[in-house]
Design a protein that fits this description.
elongated, 4 strands, 139 residues, 17% strand, 3 helices, alpha+beta, four-stranded antiparallel beta sheet
């Protein structure tokens, strides 16, 4: 199995600098979905051809849109809400209200269902990471 990414470059976390846009109001549990979407992109960008938060579609506290192009060159627009992620169009920066696709709890599950190449790249990266951990524990 080969991979074109270095698993040591995989993000260990999806943390980002806290700024005034990402601070919760004191005593509340407010989430900004744009920030959540950026974290999703950072998590799996290595395993797809292209992925970015839409600058065209509106982001809010309760919804954000992510454009993704798989390694098979299929384009999708994903909706991220508290319910999870789902495909809302088969092109960037689009939504199709007639499209009724299921929600996925994680981006990994969604991409696993859309892209065999993602599944292979992600699996290979995971295997390399585990092998590196094994080597580290033996030294």
């Amino acid at each position: 199995m080969e991979t074109d990414c270095n698993p040591m470059e995989l993000p260990n976390n999806t943390g980002f600098e806290e700024d005034s846009d990402s601070r919760d109001f004191e005593g509340t549990d407010v989430k900004d979905m744009r920030l959540e979407a950026e974290a999703v992109v950072n998590d799996v960008l290595f395993a797809v051809s292209n992925m970015f938060v839409s600058k065209t579609l509106p982001c809010a506290e309760d919804v954000a849109y992510i454009n993704v192009e798989t390694r098979e060159r299929n384009r999708y627009c994903l909706e991220l809400t508290e319910a999870g992620l789902r495909v809302v169009a088969y092109d960037f920066d689009q939504t199709d209200d007639r499209l009724q696709t299921p929600y996925h709890e994680t981006v990994y599950s969604l991409l696993d269902s859309l892209s065999p190449a993602y599944r292979e790249v992600f699996g290979n990266a995971l295997l390399q990471r585990l092998e590196a951990l094994k080597r580290d524990s033996q030294s």
